[in-house]
Structure to design on (223 residues):
């Protein structure tokens, strides 16, 4: 399983490096979302600073949708999906590899968007390790859920429009928990529920999505 996961992840990442879709489209899209938020909200009233964690994760979520749809497009071209299904690779390994490739792209994007939030929204990071833990856990959950629901929508003609409808309600708890955990890291705000509790919730969702993907990806791939 792990060998197959490395093969699939390497294949997807090499495709992205050669096509530069993530660099030329997904990355600029995420930065543009942050810039539009900056124009839509009044920076002189401090709204941007308070809303920065939520806006950051909304931008990441929108970019994750593009990354997952790009992964679907690669599998759907020239019968690649059928070739992968007949290759004899472990379905669990395929799922882990595709999720890992999406996660790597999202982590790189989050570094870029994090720098954009600091520069555009005048935010100062006060808890770097909390922010890193939230980013890793949330990215694992987003990538796992996106890869799983991407496989679910892959065989449908309306997969481009159906995928957001399927994925957004599922990842809403991840978005909320990541925003709350990031608020204490970016603004130093304390809540009745501590950042550690939110991080624990993120870890639980990540484990659940990964475990469910390992079990369900095989039947979805066959369908």
């Amino acid at each position: 399983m792990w060998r197959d996961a490395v093969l699939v992840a390497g294949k997807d990442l090499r495709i992205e490096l050669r096509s530069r879709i993530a660099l030329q489209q997904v990355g600029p899209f995420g930065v543009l979302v942050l810039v539009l938020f900056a124009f839509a909200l009044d920076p002189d009233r401090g709204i941007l600073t308070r809303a920065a964690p939520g806006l950051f994760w909304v931008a990441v979520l929108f970019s994750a949708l593009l990354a997952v749809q790009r992964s679907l497009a690669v599998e759907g071209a020239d019968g690649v999906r059928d070739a992968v299904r007949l290759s004899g690779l472990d379905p669990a390994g395929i799922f882990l590899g595709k999720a890992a490739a999406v996660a790597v792209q999202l982590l790189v994007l989050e570094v870029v968007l994090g720098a954009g939030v600091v520069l555009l929204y005048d935010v100062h990071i006060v808890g770097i390790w909390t922010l890193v833990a939230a980013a890793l856990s949330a990215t694992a959950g987003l990538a796992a859920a996106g890869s799983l629901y991407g496989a679910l929508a892959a065989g449908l003609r309306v997969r481009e429009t159906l995928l957001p409808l399927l994925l957004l309600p599922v990842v809403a708890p991840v978005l909320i928990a990541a925003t709350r955990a990031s608020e204490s890291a970016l603004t130093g705000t304390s809540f009745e529920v501590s950042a550690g509790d939110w991080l624990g919730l993120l870890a639980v969702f990540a484990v659940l999505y990964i475990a469910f993907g390992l079990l369900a990806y095989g039947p979805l791939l066959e369908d």
